[in-house]
Design the sequence.
């Protein structure tokens, strides 16, 4: 099941009329426990407007007291709403209770995937398709108007910002990256002048990254095929990849997990063809 | 009882709840002139200083304001969580998260564009907790989402050919 198909669960910490107010410290520990489990929580005192309901299932938590736990329903019949009394429960117990409800409702489980993926700044993007033609993992695609978009976030390789390096406009962000402007910080003129930001990554590395990998792999295969020493082959490949990893800030584990040279060539051709087709469509329209 | 939707209303319907057997709680303080607050815990990375996150969350809890807290905006954007639509669609919003450019992009990528005229993003990666809280709890909203600038090389870049790998 893809990320987008998994239903969400909205948790509401209700402290309005009909429910007891939590002490500030208890509220903090409860909120913290739920956030650390990956939940989105609405805290309401009942008298202030909060965002309206959406299609998600909702779980209303409150200190209602024994026998006073109310029942709610969505007047639009779009989502299921459950209510739980959290009187006398610790923050950890509340989190466990929510986890049980999540399982029962079949809602998405959080924390199994680090949300690392490119975010396109469309104020900067010129739809040049460099990213689409570069990425071997099918993260990018085009919409019906042939506009570049991120289509498969969960295909992205964790901690790898390589595609942002090939963007000539610094329009690709990774919000969890350590440094700007890739992390979303303002793009300065100096950033655009930096070699890493504006040039083709192949120039940066002194040769095409995939050609280099392919060549090295082929050499290694030939040599180690004779020697039949897999450990040596691995060592050689790692040496080669260290340079690439440092220059492009690409995690070694990402490079080590690249497919075979033949598969790289096939995927690269496929991505380039997609990009060319999109550009041709743009020109014609 | 019913949950009001789609208009912004108290949630749940307080008037329909049973009469409490304990003393009614003090009325919650306003978070400003109708501004809503969204706090992102950035749960799946260590890029927001922990002490800033904790201080901000703790104070929001102390103040007794209504607010929305999410574990990780990036994760929600990746899954196109419908909550992003309701958060973006309904009036003035102050967001405590990271860089405004990144937050704008995350919402856009999830198909839930933030209204530029009524959204302020406060950056917990670089701003101290007190500054974040002052902006969040103040009544004034200072919209700061980046807007598109026209650049001289734009037309040239638009026609550049992709590099084949």
Sequence:
């Amino acid at each position: 099941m893809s990320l987008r198909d998994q239903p969400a669960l909205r948790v509401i910490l209700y402290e309005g009329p009909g429910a007891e107010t939590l002490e500030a410290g208890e509220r903090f520990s409860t909120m913290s426990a739920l956030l650390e489990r990956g939940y989105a929580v609405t805290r309401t005192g009942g008298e202030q407007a909060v965002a309206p309901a959406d299609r998600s299932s909702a779980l209303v938590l409150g200190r209602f007291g024994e026998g006073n736990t109310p029942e709610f329903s969505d007047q639009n019949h779009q989502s299921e709403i459950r209510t739980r009394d959290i009187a006398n429960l610790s923050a950890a117990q509340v989190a466990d209770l929510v986890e049980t409800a999540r399982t029962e409702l079949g809602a998405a489980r959080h924390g199994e995937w680090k949300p690392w993926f490119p975010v396109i700044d469309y104020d900067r993007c010129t739809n040049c398709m460099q990213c689409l033609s570069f990425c071997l993992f099918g993260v990018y695609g085009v919409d019906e108007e042939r506009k570049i978009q991120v289509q498969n976030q969960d295909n992205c390789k964790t901690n790898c910002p390589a595609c942002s390096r090939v963007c000539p406009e610094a329009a690709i962000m990774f919000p969890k990256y350590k440094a700007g402007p890739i992390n979303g910080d303002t793009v300065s003129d100096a950033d655009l002048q930096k070699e890493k930001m504006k040039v083709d990554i192949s120039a940066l590395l002194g040769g095409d990254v995939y050609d280099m990998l392919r060549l090295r792999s082929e050499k290694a295969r030939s040599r180690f095929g004779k020697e039949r020493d897999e450990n040596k082959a691995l060592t050689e490949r790692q040496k080669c990849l260290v340079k690439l990893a440092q220059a492009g800030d690409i995690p070694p584990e990402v490079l080590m997990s690249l497919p075979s040279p033949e598969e790289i060539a096939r995927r690269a051709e496929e991505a380039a063809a997609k990009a060319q087709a999109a550009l041709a469509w743009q020109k014609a329209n | 009882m019913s949950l009001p939707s789609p208009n912004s209303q108290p949630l749940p319907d307080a008037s329909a709840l049973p009469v409490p057997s304990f003393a009614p709680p003090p009325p919650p303080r306003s978070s400003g002139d109708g501004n809503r607050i969204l706090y992102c815990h950035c749960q799946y990375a260590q890029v927001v200083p922990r002490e800033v996150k904790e201080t901000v969350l703790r104070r929001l809890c102390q103040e007794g304001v209504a607010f929305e807290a999410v574990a990780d905006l990036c994760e929600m954007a990746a899954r196109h969580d419908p909550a992003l639509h309701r958060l973006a669609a309904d009036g003035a919003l102050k967001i405590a998260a990271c860089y405004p450019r990144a937050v704008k992009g995350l919402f856009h990528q999830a198909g839930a564009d933030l209204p530029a005229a009524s959204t302020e993003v406060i950056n917990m990666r670089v701003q101290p907790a007190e500054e974040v809280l002052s902006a969040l709890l103040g009544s004034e909203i200072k919209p700061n989402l980046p807007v598109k600038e026209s650049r001289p090389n734009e037309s040239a870049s638009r026609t550049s050919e992709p590099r084949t790998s």
Observations:
- Chain B touches chain A through 92 residues (CB under 8 Å).
- The first strand of chain B starts at residue 2 and ends at 3.
- Strands of chain B lie at 2-3, 36-40, 67-70, 93-97, 119-123.
- The mean pLDDT of chain B is 79.
